[in-house]
Amino acid sequence: MSVRMTRTCFPHSYAKYSAVVRAILGVIIRSIVGSFARLRNKVTLSIEPFSSKSRLKNCAVSMFTPIAAKTIAKFSSSELYNKLYCHSSLNALPDQPDGKSEQQFHCVGDQQRKTEGSSDHGQ
């Protein structure tokens, strides 16, 4: 069997303004097995800049959404936030030796505060 490198190809290696330059380095290998000759393209290296503006922008939009401080304060004091926090925190940590996790104590305190607040309105 003989293998010979015939050429190197560079597809997708164009750039327009500040667009991402993507280069795939590969070789076309001619493999001769018996009387059959086959050409195949073997990709050896893919180069794409990590810090491309479009990738960073998409990452920032999908993972981090800026929220104003007033909105966070209003949301954290709402009843919906407390319900979501209690539900998610009950499943967050494994149980302690006494059978209750630290988050469960926090949620019990939140629920007691809510019942005290509702009983104050009833008097």
Tag the structure with descriptive keywords.
single chain, 123 residues, alpha+beta, 2 domains, 3-stranded antiparallel β-sheet, 4 helices, 3 strands
Strands, total number: 3
Tell me the major beta sheet: 3 strands, antiparallel
Total count of helical runs of at least 4 residues: 4
End-to-end Cα distance, whole Å, is 94 Å
Write down the overall mean pLDDT: 51
Shape: elongated
Structural class: alpha+beta
Q: What's the order of the H and E elements? A: EEEHHHH
Taken as a percent bin, the fraction of beta residues is 25-35%
Tell me the helix content: 40-55%
Number of domains: 2
Rg computed from alpha carbons, rounded to a whole number of angstroms? 30 Å
Largest sheet strand order? 1-2-3
Poorly predicted runs: 5-24, 39-46, 89-96, 100-112
Organism: Oryza sativa subsp. japonica
Protein name: Os01g0711050 protein
Biased composition (Basic and acidic residues): 111-123
Region (Disordered): 95-123
What would you note in describing this structure?
With about 120 residues, the protein is an alpha+beta fold. It has two domains: about 1-55, no CATH class; about 70-115, no CATH class. The chain has helices spanning about 55-65, 70-75, 80-90, 100-120; strands at about 1-10, 25-35, 35-45. Strands 1-2-3 form a three-stranded antiparallel β-sheet, with no helix packed on it. Strand 2 (about 25-35) and strand 3 (about 35-45) form a beta hairpin. Helix 3 runs antiparallel to helix 4. The chain is elongated and about 95 Å long.
